[in-house]
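G., the chain you wanted modeled:
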Amino acid sequence: MFEQYDLEQDLKEIEAMVAHLEPYLKSSELYGNAGGGFFSKMPALTIGAIVMRLRRLEILRPSLSSAQRERFDKTKQAHQTVYREWKSHYEKKILREAHSRLDAMRTFFEECENDPRLCAQVYSPEVLRRTIVQEIVLYMREIDLADETLTTKMSGVDGRLRRYVRPNDFFWDKTIETAYPQADFWWLYHRPAGKER
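Predicted structure as tokens:
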């Protein structure tokens, strides 16, 4: 995902995503656009991408400058406002995203089964995919949204994932490791067997 974490970039991304959240919720798209044009490096707009950054930046809050904290608080408030106004749309979309991301991991498992070396090479997107699902699950607890089908599917995916990975160092930049406790984000502390980074 990131070789070196950039706190200011994370903040800019969450600001852009929340600014485009309402029209995104009204649309049928699962992966939206947070602006920046065709050649922008802005990640796709999804609720999972938003809640991941909200939680991460809250944990990294002591590292924010006072101006950054002010921007972050304003963005958090804007997010809450949109959530309250579009609660039904929001909850439908967040569940759709979580299921879609877990379903997309099937391809990874097929690659691991057929070519273990390829499995190691394509692990990085799966780490992000599974992390965003976990961020969604944590946020669902906050808003008291349950989905037993998602819980069952996630257990199945994790069971398969554990077959292909082994314990290792934290996968992303160490500066954000505190935001990702191993108990909740175990795959960030694993890599496909035999893979050196």
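The chain has a mean pLDDT of 92.

Shout if anything looks off.
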